[in-house]
Amino acid sequence: MKRDTQLRNDIQGLRAIAVISVIIYHFNKNWLPGGFIGVDIFFVISGFLITGIILRRQELGTFSILEFYVKRALRIFPAYAALLVIVTFFMAALLIPNDWHGYSESALAALRFNSNNFFASQNDYFAPAAYELPLLHTWSLAVEMQFYLILPFVLVFASRRFVAPILICVAIVALLYSEYNLQSGHRQSVYFSLSARIPEFILGGLVAFCWRSRSFNRSTSNTMSLFGAGLIVVSMWLITEEDKFPGILAIPACVGVVLLLTSEKSQISEFMSSAPLVFIGALSYSLYLWHWPILAAIRYITGEYNIEGGAAVVFVLLTTCLAYISYRFIETPLRLQSSWKNTAFRLSVLGAIVALAVALTEIINVRLVPPMPVNLTRYAAIDEICHKKSVGNCVRGDAMAGRILLMLGDSHGAQLNKFADVVGENLGVGIRIITSSGCVTIPGFDVERIVEWARKDCENQIAEAGKYIGTADAVIIAGMWQMHAKSDKFMTSFDTFLSVTAEKKQKVLVLAQIPMLETNPQRAYRLNHLGIVIRGAKNPESDIANSKIKKIVSQHSNAVFFDFSKESFFADAPTYNGSLIYQDTHHLNETGSIRYGEFATPFLQEFLDRVYARQKAMNAGGLIQSYN
């Protein structure tokens, strides 16, 4: 058993390869599409090493569950806590208040080693993109700690002859359960779940449990290691984030790790035992900890995924230096602690310090930069509008009017509640708005395409909208077309909806997507106060998507397409006449929604005149044609 648990240089080298692949993937996923599999390599290695440690201690009669937990915490928590404190103080200064709120929740979840479940259930539509979330990578540490809570009890309380059968059964059940959920469309929850990774830990554990004194000759080891390395390389090259992973797709890479672990006499093992790889492997934990928050901060500041030039140099230098400092002055001294009993109290104090830091830094976030007025940071009070849920009768504008229009859409429809108040009151109509995140609330919308957390709300809001489509005087549709126009299924359902309304001689007004910005104006405001000047531009993708939607609309005589994106209202976006009108890169704020309504009212007047004149067919003349 000694060989299974002693420090092996080739395993350090394998760790190096794992962390390098993860960093490459996180830096630019196009360079190594399946580089995220490096995390799965870590899980198999952890299962192998930790199971071996427990079994060896049991054989010596010195195993203690409490000692095991304290030593695991001592190995993981100090460097982790240092990261949380430092990153939290930095993010308190950097993040806008809405983003800070999400970050502080994630920090507390990370402190409890529950960030995997936190991110799996994340449903904040306005949160930063995933690649800007500073603590997203902590999900894997949470999964690892959760596994550590379970493993000792299985090995201690199960009879030795039943351990392997139990582990195999658990692994098979967990694998099948995960694969079923993946095929059922629950990719996000599966990816972050402990159950999906248990087979990987167990596979490593079974190697430690079953592979005792067995040794393979050099020729056999070379063959095994070459095949194992091939499985890993092919997996990293062919598997992408679009695939249903982990599940069955994780098996080849994990088997590849097993083959490398059991062929330590091979030439590949000798390569992995080389000094540079061993050194990187020793730093792998700290490298993993630090690389992601640095990448997230750079992307948050620049607003871009790609990191080039000076920013890339900053990333490499900061990651290397901070990882080495963490390894040299935190990991190494504490790993050499001889008394684990005195450490438990210190770890508790350290956890309290991290929690206190998160609480205290709230003051920094609020006071360092003067807060923006609330009407500039939202498009409406979310509990007062029918977005993702129904609130009252959902009618805006002149609610007492006998003329009622129906507005459907995603958050680009929801942002028009104040718009509808202005238009409705000016023109004497009520506008019932029923929207949902990422979901254009028309019949036949391809719900399975949107993020998992938004699907139920989408289905409910589509059903709610269905109650009013047939009786509405006219329908208005607004959406983030650059997200939907890429879906053939959506374009088909959209075309079908327009055809059905045409048969009923019901008028439909489709609003173009407003221009999308490259830079979040709230971030620009905060960063400018911090002395970081960033300049924004418009993203051309919205124009391309608008043209695709316009083409569909033009094929239906009952429908018109209003495109104000090129008009004076958006000429100086994110401002209009000196007022900030955007809350983020693609949503108006309350002020913007009101101003947009004032700007659009004259053009909507002609549309309503046509609706209530009940013309049999709508031509594309006059003002309406000028905005087609």
From TrEMBL:
Question: What does the entry list under GO cellular component?
Answer: membrane
Query: Is Acyltransferase given among the entry's keywords?
Result: yes
The entry lists its GO molecular-function terms as:
acyltransferase activity, transferring groups other than amino-acyl groups
Using the record's annotation, list all stretches that form the Acyltransferase domain.
Answer: 10-327
> Which ranges does the record mark as transmembrane?
12-28, 34-55, 76-96, 136-155, 162-178, 190-211, 223-239, 245-263, 275-301, 307-327, 347-368
Q: Which UniProt keywords apply?
A: Acyltransferase, Membrane, Transferase, Transmembrane, Transmembrane helix
Which GO annotations describe the biological process of this protein?
lipopolysaccharide biosynthetic process
**Is Cell inner membrane among this UniProt entry's keywords?**
no
Q: Which PANTHER family match?
A: ACETYLTRANSFERASE, ACYL_TRANSF_3 DOMAIN-CONTAINING PROTEIN
Spell out the protein name for this chain.
Acyltransferase
